[in-house]
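Let us begin with a simple case.
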Amino acid sequence: MSEPHDGDVLRLDGISRRYKEGEGQLEVFNDLNLSLRPGEIVALVGPSGAGKSSLLHIAGLLEAPSGGEIFIEGRAVSKLPDQERTRIRRDRIGFVYQAHHLLPEFDALENVILPQMIAGKSRAQAEGMATRLLTTLGLGKRLTHRPAQLSGGEQQRVAIARALANRPRILLADEPTGNLDPRTSGGVFDALIAITRAEGLAALIATHNFELAARMDRALLLHQGKLVEGTQIPSQAGSR
């Protein structure tokens, strides 16, 4: 694990997560440390049930840790009021999930415009950014298509554009190609990496695909409640 650095855009210090289970508690992980620098793309790998999604939710301020602290651009944020954490999520963090969660009644362009207008941009500003992102992701001729008219890979590209629309500093992706066939998955992953690097984001991407993980800057294994740096994955960790 790399040492904390003043330039880290995201840092998790001593993070733990426990859930009530009957009269006791289930510990998912304990005393985890993680840091991301601008422009760095990091894979988060591990078996199903290891807590990858919980860790992403904590990093994205969607879930409170049981212990430890979250720093975004050097600021401790886990105990801020709900309204302030919501603002940070909106302005600093982009999310991409395994399911695209697009609004079916809106076309591709509108799905990327809406979060920007909620954040206070004008329609013209939002449309310009949405058009640029979607075109960069190869959807320039599909702007007015609704999700049902798009392929699975195209829908996920719209979801990526939506996540980047408010120019976040951090991108968190949870199995972003998990619902796609291998060929489509590779194309979407290439597009995700290319636009993430072009925008200079720090990205943490959870994946079961070790080939994709190997193409990122580094990999972190979440296994038996601990984070291990590198790609030497215990054989049982790769099982589902």
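The second case is a distinct protein. As before, the sequence precedes its structure tokens.
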Amino acid sequence: MSEQEAILKVKDLKTHFDVTKGLFAPKQIVKAVDGVSFEIKPNETFGLVGESGCGKSTLGRTIVKLYDPVSGSIEFNGKDISKLKGEELKTFRKEMQMIFQDPYASLNPRMTVGEIIKEPMIIHNIYKTDAEREARVVELLEIVGLKPDHIRRYPSEFSGGQRQRIGIARALAVNPKFIVCDEAISALDVSIQAQVINLLKNIQRKMGLSYLFIAHDLSMVKHISDTIGVMYLGHMMECGPSNDVYHRPLHPYTVALLSAIPIPDPDISKAKSRIVLEGEIPSPINPPKGCPFSTRCSKATERCRNEMPQPVQVGNRQVSCFLYEK
């Protein structure tokens, strides 16, 4: 694979859930991810942002095959993994791992730290002896900033930030090439968030990893990401280089999101005008007929309310908005 060729290609991916209640009730389908396409290159971090319920986490879980898509393709290292099952799926899981949002719920409280990190090695038959595995666990603990003697302790003996470091060590245990960080810092204090972000960046440089980094905080996403994708109601609204999206947003939804970022300087904050979106996010069970953002967009036209915009190329970015049609 060439250096510039994408390690992950997601094309028109759809993940829907049947939430029909009762045998004779009308069918209800939640369109959590509804036609998303993007690419991630080797050693790149793709930041995925959007409001709660927009489908970010579902997209991440679909990519690592915790959920099955209803259509579309997920191409990893040149191979479509969207329909993998059984032994093929197990082999693939060595290449792609996940760091979960809640460091308290994602670790088994009855297992020691050593057992938690060793478990993936045993499942995938990595290293021949238990002594080799234990040596690797100690090495991973040091990489994530924990002490070797933590190997005998239980998750309840650690803080939230330390638990997330254990989760990172577990993800690294099988030497993956790609990691999905699903809101990996949202449950942590702000000072700890910065430490974990810096840790992830250092690990990426040393190990040549690619990340899909899912988060709410746009300023934090800009700090770690090379590319940013903005999701709304299961659709990708805008996607492009981090600096361009952050400093020159194109889609009205991206503009509104960025206007809500708090600024520590009170003088600059007063001069800045925040865009307050009216109304609620529509239900993914009954989305709008046209553009999903049309019900809250100040620039929406009749066409927006009746027709779904297709992604258009604007310089080095893709934007799903009729404002940028040529």
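Residues 190-207 form the longest helix (18 residues). The chain has a mean pLDDT of 90.
Keep these points in mind for the review questions at the end of the chapter.
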